[in-house]
Recover the amino acids of this structure.
């Protein structure tokens, strides 16, 4: 068998698959929608869930299924993406066009006041005359939440009126790609009393149906072991399941294929790098929806070596990026990640990812160190105070700005920018010591962020210090924080050089040697050591030499048989001892100093 | 003339003539062969090393899905799109479906050059031209198209048109080159991008396969359009898994490519060093060396290096200016300080993905191609990155 045509790859990783053979499962959600359609007391349902979880595919499937029911319902699928900035009249005209087209009517003429005419005349007439009910399937409904408040209020009120227009013959399915709590108050008010249904992961049975698509078109064989491996990785996440299967299909249909390839667990691991690479975008949409605290928490769990992590381990990991004190949003993060996002699970062993592949993706693309910038946003209220503080700072109201920053850091002690601004203001106010102390504490957790400012502060401090010893201490402190600080290095050299010279003047050899050694002038230190040796031991050497000279002369006198009765070693030694003491009084100090 | 003369001289002359003819044929053949092989190598190099990407793109086109090609080198992108839409490869690439695929290539840059005030209706008119040429007069499709024209190509009408291609089994493959130039243009509007998304993603298999190409990634595109679409789905997130970043070729791919071209080992090494792993740079460097050898330069490598530098200099200026300031700075710091800063980790990873950095055996960043190092060193700092 030749390589199969790629058009036979049955997995779809981008497009909406509703109404096609690639759509599987979701019977529970479809049933909930049908229940609403059959319920005279309810006429709307809200479907919500993460991006790329398959919400649009459900709408597409509903459209197809309802169309196939031979005119029982007329489905009108209408995406609101890109409509937020259009005039409301235009959106209504487009909606009317679509309804008219589905019902086989001419293009509606809504007149000069389309809003009123559509709601009060055109739509009621349609509902009265149409034989069956209309089902408006609104995709990307949350996109409408992005308009000026007054327009939004008007639009949602209008929509509310439409929803209540005819509960029996006009039904609605709204789809949003966020949590209901993330909608503004005006938008979420529309959904008060409307049943909601979260679109989440497939159950195992549906996930297997999806995996088996290639068995249906006879292009892959999927033994249970392989299906289970995919399940363990994706836990039925529709997008990721499609992605894994798509890559496996590609991999196993490279070149000539003799028979229908059988998928083995090893093939799944082989395609993992490709799957991770191609799913990077999947992390971005997920990431965009998370709060700062949720991002930080999720990255910490992904970073852990173990699959499950306890709160204590999470705290330790968070400390590595400078989170010294947990803030309320961080405490609440695990719960929201479980309840609203369906992302993590907590069991006896601790927290772990529901979908292993998401774990791998976050560990790869959103490592803990990369979420440091989120620390400022951990507490929204603190961040608001920070914005106020920056405005006060710009207006040069420094004391008031400091008060605001105090509030920020009380609410969120991990706010990096607030700590930096606080130090800057203290510097401007010449409160160098206070700024230095605050920055040293800041440095403990955020060395990269604090370094520059701290070094600058210490540099300013050192300029106001008079005593050399204290200067040296501060310069050395600067080097502790920035070992490549050239100016501090220069100043330290200057100080030690001055000290060496002073020591030499005071004949403090050890002091001079030590000073030269401190600044790395080893040759100079050696030279001093040599000179100091002669200086240090010169007295003893002269004494011993004079003693020996005297002894030698007495011995010479003995050989020359000078008439001395006292044996040479006796009088020679005596003379030597006298010479020893006499020379001991001669000072070489002056000469040595001159040499220096 | 004696019989003896005839007996001996004529065969000798005949032999010489035959030898001359054979030699002439051989020489002509060899020259032709050399010429052909050189042409062939350059032609095949236009797509060399991009086979994987072409196979992947073919898969998306055949299944009615969409994709994005990201590369800093427009030549690289254009070569691939040209190959995919070239009718002479059509059957080989798409088999039985070849007849049903209608390719429409639109260069956004040229579009705005021709019509600086281009509006969505002008865009669609251009984009649908190859499709409309296929419509029979008085056909249903043509009528829908005319209705679209009358309605300024609104989303609803275009959707209807694309859906109606399905019964005919037609698929429009819309290739938008220099897609990033849509940003900050007249077409940088929520409705326009939402329409593109709706048409290409709301059905499967879709009768519109969108292939976009440009310098920025989809992630960057979505960041740039966040201001006009803060709440809805990112416009092109449906093609994120189909995004193809044209990075460096692997060492083995480069080897394989250069081995075809009768260069010595030293020359191959030289080419790989100055040109890195981008096929277009490799091709330019190869051509520079060939010319230097043909003109019998005393120092062909040195000459080729200079020639190559002059050929890519303006290209490198454009590339560096098209990068975000931080990306550009990351590269400049790496070259000038000879060490990367942790601060630039994300930018360095991006440059690696785009094939301008590689990690050596000691896990240290190295700039590739080396011509980029020379360029950064030779250019005034203020002219390197955009301000």
């Amino acid at each position: 068998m030749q390589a199969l045509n790629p058009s036979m790859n049955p997995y779809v990783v981008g497009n909406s698959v509703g109404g096609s053979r690639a759509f599987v499962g979701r019977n529970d959600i479809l049933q909930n929608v049908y229940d609403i359609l059959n319920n005279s007391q309810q006429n709307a349902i809200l479907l919500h869930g993460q991006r790329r979880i398959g919400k649009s595919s459900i709408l597409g499937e509903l459209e197809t299924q309802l169309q196939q029911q031979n005119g029982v319902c007329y489905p009108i699928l209408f995406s609101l993406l890109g409509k937020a900035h259009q005039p409301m009249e235009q959106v209504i005209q487009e909606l009317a066009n679509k309804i008219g087209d589905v019902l086989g009517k001419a293009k509606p003429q809504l007149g000069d006041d389309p809003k009123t005419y559509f709601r009060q005349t055109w739509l009621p007439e349609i509902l009265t005359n149409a034989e069956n009910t209309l089902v408006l399937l609104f995709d990307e409904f949350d996109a409408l939440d992005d308009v000026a408040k007054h327009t939004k209020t008007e639009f949602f009120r209008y929509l509310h009126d439409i929803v209540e227009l005819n509960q029996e013959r006009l039904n609605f399915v709204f789809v949003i790609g966020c949590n209901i709590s993330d909608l503004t108050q005006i938008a979420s008010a529309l959904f008060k009393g409307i049943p909601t249904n979260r679109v989440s992961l497939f159950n195992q049975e549906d996930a297997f149906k999806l995996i088996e698509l290639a068995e249906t078109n006879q292009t892959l064989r999927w033994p249970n072991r392989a299906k289970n491996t995919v399940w363990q990785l994706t836990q039925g996440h529709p997008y990721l399941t499609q992605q894994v299967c798509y890559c496996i299909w590609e991999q196993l249909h490279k070149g000539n294929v003799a028979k229908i390839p059988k998928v083995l667990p090893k093939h799944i691991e082989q395609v993992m790098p490709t799957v991770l690479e191609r799913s990077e975008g999947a992390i971005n949409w997920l990431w965009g929806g998370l709060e700062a605290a949720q991002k930080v928490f999720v990255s910490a769990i992904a970073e852990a070596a173990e699959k499950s992590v306890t709160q204590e381990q999470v705290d330790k990991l968070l400390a590595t990026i400078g989170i010294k004190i947990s803030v309320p949003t961080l405490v609440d993060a695990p719960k929201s990640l479980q309840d609203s996002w369906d992302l993590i699970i907590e069991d006896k062993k601790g927290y772990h990812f529901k979908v292993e592949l998401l774990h791998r993706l976050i560990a790869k693309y959103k490592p803990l160190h990369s979420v440091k910038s989120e620390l400022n946003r951990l507490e929204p209220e603190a961040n608001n105070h920070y914005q106020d503080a920056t405005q006060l700072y710009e207006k040069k109201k420094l004391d008031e700005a400091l008060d605001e920053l105090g509030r920020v850091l009380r609410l969120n002690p991990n706010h990096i920018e607030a700590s930096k601004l606080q130090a800057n203001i203290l510097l401007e106010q010449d409160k160098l010591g206070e700024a230095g102390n605050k920055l040293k504490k800041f440095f403990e957790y955020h060395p990269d962020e604090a370094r520059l400012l701290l070094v600058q502060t210490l540099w300013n401090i050192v300029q106001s210090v008079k005593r050399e010893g204290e200067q040296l201490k501060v310069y050395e402190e600067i080097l502790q924080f920035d070992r490549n600080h050239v100016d501090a290095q220069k100043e330290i050299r200057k100080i030690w050089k001055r000290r060496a010279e002073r020591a030499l003047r005071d004949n403090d050899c050890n002091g001079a040697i030590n000073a030269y050694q401190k600044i790395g002038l080893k040759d100079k230190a050696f030279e001093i050591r040599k000179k100091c040796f002669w200086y240090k031991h010169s007295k003893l050497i002269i004494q011993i030499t004079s003693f020996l000279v005297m002894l030698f002369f007495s011995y010479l006198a003995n050989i020359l048989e000078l008439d001395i009765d006292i044996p040479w070693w006796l009088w020679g030694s005596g003379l030597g001892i006298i010479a020893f003491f006499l020379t001991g009084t001669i000072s070489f100090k002056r000469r040595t100093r001159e040499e220096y | 003339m004696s019989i003896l003369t005839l007996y001996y001289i004529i065969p000798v002359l005949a032999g010489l003539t035959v030898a001359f003819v054979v030699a002439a044929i051989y020489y002509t053949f060899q020259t032709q062969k050399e010429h052909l092989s050189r042409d062939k190598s350059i032609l095949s190099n236009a797509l060399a090393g991009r086979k994987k990407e072409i196979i992947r793109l073919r898969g998306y086109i055949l299944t009615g899905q969409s994709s994005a090609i990201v590369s800093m080198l427009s030549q690289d992108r254009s070569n691939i799109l040209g190959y995919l839409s070239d009718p002479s490869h059509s059957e080989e690439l798409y088999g039985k479906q070849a007849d049903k695929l209608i390719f429409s290539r639109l260069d956004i840059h040229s579009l705005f050059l021709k019509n600086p005030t281009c509006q969505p209706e002008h865009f669609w008119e251009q984009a649908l031209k190859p499709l409309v040429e296929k419509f029979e007069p008085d056909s249903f499709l043509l009528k829908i198209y005319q209705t679209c024209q009358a309605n300024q190509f609104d989303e609803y009408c275009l959707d209807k048109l694309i859906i109606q291609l399905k019964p005919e089994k037609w698929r429009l493959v819309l290739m938008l080159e220099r897609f990033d130039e849509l940003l900050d243009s007249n077409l940088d509007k929520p409705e326009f991008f939402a329409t593109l998304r709706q048409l290409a993603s709301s059905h499967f298999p879709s009768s519109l396969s969108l292939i976009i190409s440009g310098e920025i990634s989809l992630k960057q595109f979505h960041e740039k359009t966040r201001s006009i679409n803060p709440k809805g789905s990112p416009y092109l997130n449906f093609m994120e898994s189909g995004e193809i970043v044209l990075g460096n070729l692997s060492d083995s791919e480069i080897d394989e490519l250069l081995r075809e071209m009768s260069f010595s080992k030293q020359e191959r090494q030289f080419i790989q060093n100055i040109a890195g792993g981008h096929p277009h740079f490799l091709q330019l460097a190869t051509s520079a060396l060939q010319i230097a050898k043909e003109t019998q330069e005393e120092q062909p490598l040195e000459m080729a290096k200079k020639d190559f530098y002059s050929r890519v200099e303006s290209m490198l200026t454009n590339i560096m200016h098209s990068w975000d300031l931080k990306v550009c700075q990351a590269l400049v710091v790496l070259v000038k300080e000879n060490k990367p800063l942790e601060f630039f980790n994300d930018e360095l990873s991006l440059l690696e993905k785009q094939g301008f950095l590689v990690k050596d055996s000691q896990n240290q960043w190295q700039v590739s191609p080396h011509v980029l190092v020379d360029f950064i060193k030779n250019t005034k700092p203020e002219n390197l990155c955009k301000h």
Chain A has 28 helices and seven strands.
